[in-house]
Design goal:
The complex is a heterodimer.
Chain A (H helix, E strand, L loop, with lengths): L6 H27 L16 H9 L1 H29 L6 H13 L2 H12 L4 H8 L13 H29 L3 H10 L3 H12 L1 H16 L3 H6 L11 H11 L3 H27 L4
Helix pairs in contact in A: 1-13, 3-4, 3-7, 3-10, 4-7, 7-10, 8-9, 10-13, 12-13
Chain B lengths: L3 E8 L8 E8 L4 E5 L6 H9 L6 E6 L2 E2 L5 H4 L1 E4 L11 H11 L4 H14 L15 H14 L4 E5 L7 H18 L2 E6 L2 H7 L2 E6 L2 E6 L1 H6 L4 H6 L6 E8 L2 E4 L2 E4 L13 E6 L7 H4 L4 E6 L2 E4 L3 E9 L2 H11 L14 E9 L9 E6 L5 E3 L6 E2 L3
Parallel strand pairs in B: 3-8, 3-9, 6-7, 7-8
Antiparallel strand pairs in B: 1-2, 1-4, 4-5, 9-10, 11-12, 11-14, 12-13, 14-20, 15-19, 16-17, 17-18, 20-21
Classes of the chains: A mainly alpha, B alpha+beta.
Chain lengths: 285, 388
């Protein structure tokens, strides 16, 4: 075979150099600040692992909230996306229109979505008005203004926004499930639930891996929706690792501490993604 | 052992032309019944109706005399072998063979024994732990068969199960299928577009065209007494020759050949009328092999194809465009892409003679046909006309 020579390098080098320069180098330098007490103004001094130990003492509630939010979001958005995909894969006549419709929220700016939902979930907003109109006025509450509902509300808004996007992933996955296989299972005696559990779901494994890994990463890195919906409140009740890093770094001017938390966050995301891929990929066929 | 019946079954998708049009059939217990026809004739739809994967627009499906039209596939308890095998790719061979048993709640120990038994029967014993992606086409085919057999269903439904195998494997699998059926004795409905499979496998076969039943008969009957010109053209390889002839008092004027026929073999139409005549290539023989009352035809060989034991001689006969159109219409040649060219000035007919007859293209050849080997069909519609 003819050797490719230098041409492929011409294509690779510029992109690789740019990535190195604007992503990798600053990240590594930033990582180094994690071991200092830099405040952005004075020159940093080495503090060892002090930032990390401080986070494990003071920041654990943020980790808990992030995990709860990630759990709600990952389960919710994948279940909703899969449900939409199954519903819109074959049967409905209007499926093409509906697919486009469900995808619309995913292409709207998260900030716009957040403002729409702040309005809906407001104490005097349409949701509470509807509840009152149907006689469930006692259930009306400040959804974003109290600790026990705010986190779930944020998760629901995110699921609403990205269910369509995950629907696309599962629709693509369902293309790979041949109709004949489901018919063979039907003739073998499997009812709808068995066919889903025994045939569709195992064959959707690659799509499930992609769906859960992508949603886990975005849940861990969640920032703008929380900022726009609750600003991390009430009293830090919806603070996630993303908003916490922002607050500590840019509001409180603790660049060293912020870098340490950010570094932990990156490590956590990588670890979670790896574990999920291992669990879901199973045996390679 | 199960008998299967169809009463006036119609299948229409969204108001389009019927895929299955008023089909009534009786399939007997333990029979190997073949549904054959060109692609798009509705044979696979008919099989899916039997499986319960489709509900007919009207009509009744019966099994052992009871109406199963509204029953799901699970309750019908039939097994189906799909054209692309439909092997579950994420399960092992053993998992595939045992899936139907697991779903139907057969105790684990019994299921394992049955899987083992079927695997041994089909020579899959060493492959039970393998994944389908590592198997050859022939092995996949066996797994598909095995999955059907392990269930011990009331009937097997097979949708062109051999069509994805290479020619050599197909011949051996055909023989195996026949043996298996004899051994298991389960009612089998087998769909194919291959008339060789229809001839060799079935105890009876139904020929379908455009959703309509053309003829139901034993393979030899389909070959010897086709109900119409379509069946005559579809069954047999190479296909039957057709020519438009004019009846005479003492025989036929067949595309310029003067055939004198004994009274019992003359066409059942008045002298001067047109009749569609069919002659199988293997009935056009060397004069000495055709018998003493045979009609002689002197032709010029245009193309010769050697098949080893036999050879095919193609010779032209003059033909008017309208004759070509009549023949094409009567035999539904438009259904079969390999049909003869319509409208050309001449038509190539085919004779199948032993390879030791020495002929080269351009040679004049004497052929003969037994009067009893002539098939007569109505020029309009192609229905079979009995000899006078």
């Amino acid at each position: 075979m003819k050797r490719p020579g230098a041409v492929p390098w011409l294509f690779v080098v510029p992109a690789a150099a740019l990535t190195l320069l604007i992503l990798l180098v600053p990240s590594l330098v930033g990582a180094a600040y994690a071991f200092t007490d830099w405040d952005g103004l004075t020159s940093p001094s080495w503090v060892g692992l002090a930032n990390f130990t401080e986070f494990f003492d003071d920041g654990s509630h943020v980790v808990g909230q992030t995990l709860i939010l990630a759990g709600l979001y990952v389960v919710g958005v994948n279940a909703a996306g899969l449900g939409l995909a199954l519903g819109l894969a074959h049967t409905l006549r209007t499926r093409h229109v509906l697919r486009a419709l469900f995808l619309v929220p995913a292409v709207v700016s998260p900030l716009v979505v957040a403002y729409i939902w702040t309005f809906i979930l407001d104490v005097d907003g349409p949701l509470n008005e509807i509840l009152e109109a149907v006689g469930l006025g006692s259930s009306a509450q400040p959804w974003l203004g109290q600790r026990n509902t705010a986190l779930a509300a944020v998760a629901i808004v995110m699921v609403w926004q990205f269910a369509g996007y995950h629907m696309l992933i599962y629709l693509a996955g369902l293309q790979g499930v041949q109709r004949e296989l489901l018919e063979a299972a039907e003739v073998d005696g499997a009812g709808p639930w068995r066919r889903f559990a025994d045939i569709t779901l195992p064959l959707l494994r690659p799509a499930l891996v992609i769906g859960t890994v992508l949603s886990t990463i975005s849940a861990f890195l969640l920032f703008d929706q929380v900022m726009a919906l609750t600003g991390g409140g009430p009293s830090g009740g919806t603070d996630t690792l993303g908003t916490y890093v922002y607050e500590q770094t840019f509001v409180n001017g603790r660049y060293g501490y912020g870098s340490a938390v950010a570094l932990l966050l990156v490590g956590g995301v990588c670890l979670a993604a790896l574990v999920q891929m291992r669990l879901l990929r199973g045996r390679r066929s | 052992m199960t008998s299967i019946g169809l009463d006036h079954v119609v299948m229409r998708y969204d108001g389009t032309q019927a895929a299955v049009d008023d089909v009534s059939l009786e399939i007997e217990e333990g029979e190997f019944f073949v549904l054959v026809g060109p692609s798009g004739c509705g044979k696979s739809t008919l099989l899916r109706l039997l499986a319960g994967l489709e509900r007919p627009s009207s009509g009744t499906v019966r099994m052992d005399g009871s109406d199963v039209t509204e029953l799901t596939p699970r309750l019908r308890d039939v097994a189906m072998v799909f054209q692309n095998y439909a092997i579950y790719p994420h399960m092992t061979v053993g998992g595939n063979l045992g899936y139907g048993l697991k779903v139907r709640g057969v105790p684990k120990r019994e299921a394992a024994a049955r899987v083992r038994e079927v695997a041994d029967l089909l020579g899959l014993g060493d492959l039970l732990k393998r994944r389908p992606t590592t198997l050859s086409g022939g092995q996949l085919q066996r797994v598909a068969m095995g999955r059907a057999i392990a269930r011990r269903p009331r009937a097997y439904l097979m949708d062109e199960p051999l069509s994805n195998l290479d020619a050599k494997l197909r011949v051996s699998m055909r023989a195996e299928l026949e043996q298996l059926h004899r051994r298991l004795g389960v009612t089998t409905v087998y769909v194919t577009h291959d008339q060789v499979e229809a001839m060799t496998l079935g105890s009876r076969a139904a020929v379908l065209r455009a959703g309509e039943l053309q003829q139901v008969a034993a393979p030899q009957e389909l070959y010897a007494r086709p109900a119409n010109a379509f069946v005559a053209a579809f069954i047999g390889s190479p296909p039957m020759n057709f020519a438009l002839a004019t009846a005479r008092e003492d025989g036929l004027d067949l595309a310029g050949f003067d055939l004198r026929l004994p009274a019992e073999h003359r066409p059942p139409v008045a002298a001067g009328e047109r009749v569609l005549v069919g002659i199988r290539p293997e009935e056009l023989r060397a004069p000495q092999a055709a018998g003493k009352d045979a009609c002689a035809l002197r032709v010029t060989c245009a193309v010769r194809q050697n098949l080893g034991a036999d050879q095919l001689l193609f010779f032209p006969v003059p033909q008017l465009p309208y004759e070509a159109a009549v023949i094409a219409r009567a035999t539904f040649a438009e259904d079969r892409p390999a049909g003869p060219a319509v409208g050309s000035g001449e038509r190539l007919l085919c004779a199948r003679v032993p390879a030791d007859v020495s002929v080269e293209p351009g040679d004049t050849v004497d052929l003969a046909v037994r009067p009893g080997a002539l098939h007569y069909f109505a020029p309009d519609g192609g229905a079979r006309l009995p000899s006078a």
